Amino acid sequence: MTEWWYNHRTGEVEEGPQSLGSDRDGPFATREEAQRAPEIARERARKWAAEEEAER
Fold it and tell me: pLDDT tens, 6-56?
């Protein structure tokens, strides 16, 4: 099964881990999901912030 990665330094999607781990997010199941990595990260950050705020 192919894994896809998003390189946040270059903005490119990679098939398999090609760059440094500190430069990429993943793995993702599909190329399309990897392309959405920045959006997914923002969604997760908003969710975590909301959960943290609710705990106060």
Answer: 999 999 999 999 999 999 999 999 999 999 999 999 999 999 999 999 988
Tokens 């990260």 sit on residue: 41
Q: How many CB atoms lie within 10 A of CB 12?
A: 14
Residue 12 amino acid letter? E
How many structural domains is the chain composed of?
1
Q: What range does the domain containing 22 cover?
A: 4-55
Residue 24 burial by CB count (10 A; 0-12/13-18/19+): exposed, middle or buried? buried
| d(C-alpha 7, C-alpha 37), whole Å | 9
